[in-house]
Amino acid sequence: MAGLVHSYDAVQLERYLADHVPGFTTLDGFEKFAGGQSNPTYKVTSGERTFVLRAKPPGDLLASAHQVDREYRVLSALENTDVPVPRTYHLSGEQSPLGAQFFVMEFLDGRIFWDPALPELQREDRRPLFLAMNRTLAALHEVQPEAVGLANYGKPGNYFERQTDRWVRQYRASETDPQPDLEAVIAWLQANMVSDDGQVSLVHGDFRLDNLMFAPGRPEVIGVLDWELSTLGHPLADLAYQCMQWRLPNKGMLRGLAGIDRASQGLPSEREYVAEYCQRRGWSGVTNWNFYLVFSMFRLAAIVQGILHRAANGTASNPGTIDQFGPALRLLGSMARDLTETPSEVHL
Question: What is the mean pLDDT of the chain?
Answer without folding.
Answer: 91
